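Morning, I've got a small favour to ask if you have a moment. I'm working through a protein record and want to make sense of it properly. The fold is given in discrete form, as structure tokens running alongside the sequence. Can you walk me through what the tokens say about the fold? Thanks so much in advance, here it is:
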Amino acid sequence: MGIGWMIFWIIAGIALWVTADFLLGRKQHLANAKKYAFPERYSDLEIFAKGPELFEDLFSEIKKARQHIHILFYIIKDDKLSHEFVTLLKNKAQEGVEVRLLVDWIGSNLKRKTIKSLKAAGVQFAYTHIPKPPFLFYSSQVRNHRKITVIDGQIGYLGGFNIGDEYNDKNPKLSPWRDYHLKLTGEGIVDLQKEFLRDWQCASKVNLLQNKAYFPELQKGSIRQQFVPTEGDSLEDLIATLISEAKKSIIIGTPYFIPSKEVFEQLNAAISRGVSVTVLVPYKSDHILVKEASYRYLRSLLKDGADVYQYLKGFYHAKVVMIDDNICDIGTANFDQRSMFLNYELNCLVYDPSFIKKVKHILTEDMLDSHKASLADFSRANLFLSFKETAARTISFFL
């Protein structure tokens, strides 16, 4: 057998293994995925769209913690802001505060020595979603993309920001970083706490859900909201349902616009029945091929009469869907197939007109800092771009 044939059979064998691993892993995933939604609650909400403002507030609240700090992030970088964050957690643990830090195994950039120093200071640390057999490839693709912070069971945070200098406007290429992150107080914190503790149990095998110390009595807030966790199986249904109920307008803000077939069909149907559809995406890209993967969808929407805006003032990373000024969905999920079919996500549905008006004002500001796109902006200008778009379409499920 020649070397050429050997290489062919090796590649064919790898392709066969990856395909079988993915299909069987997906089958197991869907069989084990939990479908649940928390009840509607009344909380008080603030929204942050700038990293420096969020981190100043978040770090200040962490410093004031007296009992426990529960934090989950998809990404924690190895840079100045991350070092400040790690030092803060170690200091609180040494003060006697219970500190639990949960990070995604692939997303995080924490070094071993940093993790060792956290544990030495008393911080309880765990990785979530470590790839494992028998489906190594598939399990490496299923990530915990949630970003949750709960302080003393009374203050919570959820949204699109991670921990790192680029999220704090310190990356020359992507700054300023534009994102939406919620701060909550009130009765909704109980569900945020439960979701963290479920993820903690899955990662550490320690069940703290029955510990009343983590669930203090909470007062009702003024804003009706509902947390919806998804595990790579039901986000598509949630988004498709929201879009199908739209009567007047749909606004989508996302860094990655790669909708599923069902969701895209619902968007087309909404336009057909006279609903105004607006999509806000970044002009800059922070990952290879994600921009090109969106082109065919954006071209189609533009042809049907939708408005598409490309954010120019830095990098746009927010995750928001607004329906008729009546429902606003803000959370950790991108408007893409990875969030819909692979990632563990957590979204917050908000039903309060005054808060939705505040979010719409932020969206309007971001559109003013954007370029209103035309079909020409997403045309295949040359062979190389055409190749990139074709490649992006092939692997769009994983982008």
